[in-house]
Amino acid sequence: MKRSHWSIPYAVFLGIFVVLPLLLVLLYALQDGQGHFTLANITRFFSDSDALGTFAVSLEIAIENTLICILLGYPAAWILANKELNRSAVTIVLFILPMWINALMRTLATAELFNMFGIQLGKGTLLFGMVYDYLPFMIYPIYNVLSKMDKSYAEAAQDLGATPWKVFWKVTVPLSMPGVSSGILMVFMPTVSTFAISEFLTNNKIKLFGTIIQENINSSMWNYGAALALIMLVIIGISTMITGDRKDAEEALI
């Protein structure tokens, strides 16, 4: 048996569970209720004030959540990757441990804590839940890059007289940008498209783009819901290409 034959099960899996669903989304998005080809579902989004408003709110929440995750996640990742400050692998596990628990269970537990302490649900509780759920996805990519970083760059900068602060900003930060970019992509796009977190942590007072898609699908408006999902997929694809089309981080030091 050739080695290439071992890839057949994976190809079948991708075809059934990835390619086929995407083709169905595309098919429904480009059809009307009678199965005729149309672009009305796509153009409807740009004239739907409710969908556009929800999309704007989703972008706002996603940007705020991503910025908070960067501010909290980068220092945490730097500390975890610094062997002088962190000498135990247990600390790393504690940061990643929440990822082992189902996101829905974490969200329900967070909402119950807010209810227990009488905290009114709203944007603040939503951002808290978002950060709690997605912070590990920001920490781990940055930590992964920092832990594998070539220390000779920092040592060379120190030999040339750079202070620790300059070494951090001129060497460490530029070299860690691939990890930051990955973290941004892993936090920003799921935040825009999620719906369960906003429903449970705001009592559906704040709707995100994923909520609009869910409502249309639940109302049997498959075509418009698929069109919204397709728009979301296009945005994700563009974001992936933008973050993936980067020069080597070492060039940032020039």
Structure, described:
By secondary structure, the chain is mainly alpha-helical. It has a single domain, classed as MetI-like (MetI-like fold), CATH 1.10.3720. Helices cover 74% and strands 0% of the residues. It is globular, with a radius of gyration of 22 Å. The C terminus is likely disordered.
Q: Major sheet: size, sense and barrel closure?
A: none
Shape: globular
Q: Tell how many strands the DSSP assignment holds.
A: 0
Uncertain regions spanning at least 5 consecutive residues? 245-254
Query: Which structural class do the helices and strands define?
Result: mainly alpha
How many H/I helices?
A: 12
Q: Which superfamily, in CATH terms, is the homologous superfamily?
A: MetI-like
Span between N and C termini?
Answer: 49 Å
Helix proportion: over 70%
Question: What CATH architecture would you give?
Answer: Orthogonal Bundle
Q: Work out the count of structural domains.
A: 1
CATH topology: MetI-like fold
Write down the CATH class.
Mainly Alpha
> From N to C, what is the helix and strand string?
HHHHHHHHHHHH
| Percentage of residues in strands | under 5%
Indicate the mean pLDDT. 86
Gyration radius from CA atoms, angstroms: 22 Å
Q: What's the structural blueprint in terms of helices and strands?
A:
Layout: H1 8-29, H2 40-47, H3 49-81, H4 89-96, H5 103-116, H6 123-147, H7 151-159, H8 164-175, H9 177-193, H10 196-202, H11 209-218, H12 222-244
Helix pairs in contact: 1-12, 2-12, 3-6, 3-9, 5-10, 6-9, 6-10, 7-8, 9-12, 11-12
